[in-house]
Protein 1
Amino acid sequence: MIEALRKKAEELLRSNTVNVIYGYGEGSTPERTRPVFITKPEDVSKLTWNKYCVYNLTTYLKRRESRKLGKPAIVVKGCDAKTIVVLIKESQIKREDVYILGVTCNGVGEPMATKCKACDVHTPRIYDELIGEKIENKEIPFEERYAELEQYEKLSEKEKWDFWQKQFAKCIKCYACSSICPLCFCDRCIVDKNQPQWIDPSAHPRGNLSWNVTRAYHLAGRCINCEECQRVCPADIPLNLLNKKLAKETEKNFKYRAGYNIDDELAMATYKEDDNQDFFK
Amino acid sequence: MSEKTKFEPRIVAFLCNWCTYAGADLAGTGRKQYQANVRVIKLPCTGGIDPLFLIKAFERGADGILVSGCHPGDCHYNSGNYHARRRWNVFRPLLEFCGINPERIQFSWISAAEGGKWVETINGVVNAVRALGPFEGYKKINAIGPDAPSESFVTN
Amino acid sequence: MRTWRLCGELFLFQLVLVRYSIVEKILKKEKFNSLITGLKDQGYKTIAPKKDNNLIMLDEVQSADEIHLDHVQTNNSIKEFFLPKTEKILSYRMEKNKVSIEEPEGFAVKTVIFGSRPCDAASLPVMDKVFNWDCTDKFWIQRREASAIVTIACDKCDNYCFCTSVGLAPDSKEGSDVLLTRISDDEYLAETVTEKGEKLVESLGTVFTPADNPGTETLNRQVATVEKKFEIEKVKPWLDENFVHKVWAEFSTKCIGCGACTFVCPTCHCFDIVDECTMSKGDRVKNWDGCQFKMFTLHTSGHNPRSTQDQRWRQRIMHKFKYYVEKFDSILCVGCGRCSRVCPADMNISEMLEIIATENSQTGDKE
């Protein structure tokens, strides 16, 4: 599979179809990989693929430094490919501006990442070239996909509050969660706006609650569950629980799943006349 | 008198200019009485209410929040309230998930002709929040300035 | 006259240095509990490594059971006990024509940091220099005075550790008041490094027992071997010459511009001051900030002198290994490796320094 990947990458660079490959390379330790940017055909041997390729490389589509390298081909897993769909829908990129090197994937991380346990995109749903044997994408029932949330949802109000206060207290406001997120592409984040200062920049409980709730909310109906925010959090806050909760509500209320169908209207940019309004007086 | 009965909830109401605000006005001109715990903030449309407004209201000491606008189909800007409805459909469960009682954030549709419904809704919200008591959790984290108890500010 | 006084001071200073000699004692693991209670009785707040789900955090402990010792490195650094992630520096209130200001008090509580690593401890004297420089930072200084550092030498290390490459070692004494080194499964050799440390050990009475055979060579000290990765002497000369170089961009394209590296770093000390206020009152707050953020250098005009990530990454390296050395004669890095462990894109700082050190020898060959 690695050979096929390298061969295709070399071909793409030689034919000038793309200028750069965003891929995975060997990392500091055997249990880690790192993003690599291959611009010369002779460097394709730096590309690798294994179960430690957890990163969602589409985040480099928003970074000026990597975009400077020219038209990219991106190595994406099924989950990462969903990001590209959202980015296209949100007019951040054009389909023809990116070459998608889809890889089939049986789960990444050691131990396996939570996102992989209920994966229904072993084979990317969008790609230009598929590397690896096609794996059939099985439908997974709604309840199973959001099973992780159950133990938190059934907590009492106070338990929930205490749980999240304890989690948010650990936040150091390094903003790694939003920096890594491929869909947090605002040039200037709401937290950086200070006239007026909507979110306190301090890492105290008030500022942390506002920040974490706002970050999650800004991904409502957009998050594709790549879990990068949670992976990179140096304070080990289970951020993806918030994202997942929002995805669940979006799916429940609007029958929408971010990144699955390129023809679907974006959930938060549209409405239906018969949307749920049980809680309105 | 116990602490509980002395507690007067602080309610912030975000109202749309065209319907609910006019409805509240109607209640006023009709000399209808309702509990005076509400601070009204008038906005052009519920569609323009960022969820951060609600967070900010809690940060500044609100015990409860009401968001109210035109009935579906009546929006002055055609679809503002529909978009707002989508937003609250996900934001409300998010806050609930974080441990904020959904009774503290209420939503309603009140038209310019419904002065009576405004009175009912406000009384309902105030009573509900009064029953819940002060929003202790948030009060602990949102004190600011010289009056803030020093332990409210976590340094380590 | 001034010369005489200076000479006198130097003489006294030397006396202090000469007079202090290390006291060796033994600390048994079973005494940890009496150590913590002893400290508590004396009014100390005790900070020690604690397990918190997947993290090992330096945090306040109440009993010895909470202390976690089987790790390479804590996830948070020692810095937050002297320079907290967020800290109120004053509160104010505005009334008609009057502004009243209230300064915080009681921020410097008597603290013992127990079981931090030698690299963490070594970061403190390095940072003392900047916090005692043109403006003396009372928050830092008073906390430093109120704290004692009891370090445990590393008995294991990982690929990210590079203390030996920056002039330290897994059993360095810099910055510690007492250094503990494991000598058997349940015994530590305690060496006092400063008078403060000696007093602390004395005050705890029988918790520390006298060493049977004073003289460290006879004891079986268990210290990790950290491989030396590069010659630090070669780094600064290269940095002096290569402010503009392609390696900056090559290495940092993968950087996503979060501040995680700077926030976990025990020697990164940049902070931002903001007012958090309502109309009439507010707090002036000091928060950690980091050079890897785009906003860090953004001017009001909209101009950003460090507009790309390679410039920001260069700044991090330059500050640590060139500017700080020029100003304070210390390297602003203790080789703890936290930045590399935590980096979302696996940017490894020691790898960057290896590149620099080898580049330098290569150019040296050419010349």
Protein 2
Amino acid sequence: MSHPVVIIMIEDDPGHARLIEKNIRRAGVNNEIRHFESGTAALRHVFQPEVRDNGPLLVLLDLNLPDMSGTDILEKLKADEKLKRAPVVVLTTTDDQREIQRCYALGCNVYITKPVEYETFSQAIRQLGLFLSIMQVPEVP
Amino acid sequence: MPSTRVATAELLNKRPRLTLTGQRLLPVIAGFLVLLGVAAATIWIGLSSRNYNLLVSHTLKVRSSAYLLLTLVQDAETGQRGYLLTNDRSYLTPYHDGADNAPAALDDLENLARGNAAEMATIGNLRTLVSAKLGELARTVTLNESGDVPGALAVVKNNSGNNYMTEIRRRVGEIQDDETQMIGAENAQTRVYGDMLGWFSLGGIILVILLGVLTILSTRRNVLELQGAQEAMRETNDNLEGIVQARIADLQAANEEIQRFAYIVSHDLRAPLVNVMGFTSELEAVRTDIMDFLKEVEARAPDLVTMDRRAAIETDLPEALGFIRSSTSKMDRLINAILKLSREGRRVLTPQTIELKDLVVAQRESLSHQLAEGEAELTVQDDLPTLVSDRLAIEQVFGNLIENATKYLFPGRPGRIEVRGKTIGSFVRYEIADNGRGIDKKDFERIFELFRRSGEQDKPGEGIGLAHVRNLTRRLGGNIAVTSELGKGSTFTITLPAVFSNSDRVS
């Protein structure tokens, strides 16, 4: 692992973003988190050559975005020769079965529903953090 | 969809009248009357001609009778003359024949002429003349027989016999002429009738032909109208099918939209709730820090910790956080309920045969603890009708209703819950009756609305169950109703199609 994993968080709700970040940190994950509030901005960022070519990435993706659907972003990431290696964790309020199936079909690695109950939520995020800390993210060759 | 509605109304109005009106029957009736008239006239004229024939035969009889009389008298005279000339007695045979038969002939004539006053008068004259003539003849014959030939010839010579004969001839001629005249008049009259019949028949035939043509035209028009009507009906049918299809599509679209709406609302309401809950928890963590800080301050500078400050941190802050937390939890439960309903509406129903009795018995098993607590007994009708429907939905409907019956028993009274049912045509009707606390009549509709409850709020619940049940029964093509009396018990009646297929879906 030459580079530490960078976490790309695509989340339009700043509150959610803050809570997610806090809980990930509480789980002891200290990797860099780059937060984007829109799909457009996030895609522009990850498709820059220096990001695309250099880094193990992990994407935290919300599905309900104002400018585009999270599944569109997922599709674009998974269609790219290099970015498709980055694990994608869909983290959203939707727990609709069809949506979940669609995400997995498009190649999402983990699908997590944001529970309203905060304890459960923070627990889930912390577990995600633990999971992230042990997960092997493939290096870009 | 107002445009299709207008189209339907228009089509219905266009439907032509198919009744056979009086106007259409008129030619037929008229033709029949004309034929009847022609027939009556024919009969009448036939009868008149029969009268005429009778008259003709009568006239002939009269004429021949008169002629016979004349012949007989002439025979008698001829015989008398021969006898007187030759004195040969053989000439007396025609004389006697004539003289003897003449009165009978006269009687016959009189019989025939009875009723004709003029003829009767002539016949009266004739009778006098005939008897005078016969008397003259008899006298000469008698004189001759007695040998007085000159006496007899003298009688002949005085010419009175000849005068009688002339008179008789004239009278017979009169009778014959009279009869001929009468028959002529009758004949003319009959000819008029005959002509009339001819014209009448001709007119009738023309009329009948005319009416026939009229009827054919009118029938043709009728047939064309009928064809038009059939065409219109066919179009209406085709259109109706289209309209129904369009309506179903509309309903499905509207339903989908409602589902989507509920779904979006529940999700978009959830996102801010995550924040409210999350940051409330963060605040609680902060409060713990402040509490620690308060203790530190109290230890170092106790005069800084006033009653108000302590109360704010130790009482007011946790109270406020507690309310935020409980309200958010409630809101979360409500949103989940909406989400559940909307999700249930999206689920594809799969009909299968359900042994409802087994299903209810299984639910009784799972509720045995609650039933025992309320000293309640659940009885299931032995021959509870089976049905073909969606198993999960039916389980939820009966589960909810039975659970409610168990939950809202009358305090202190052993519960009696009964599940019964019967088949009504292509539907099955189930009843779940209890002797529980009952529902106020004004709440019969309210209890089926989302988040609404009735009576004393002493049991946990969000007011979702019955709304869910009604939603399900409607999706299954049925309905639910309640009758109840406060303090006595409630009966929920569910009507469902005995065999559900997805095409029955109403909402």
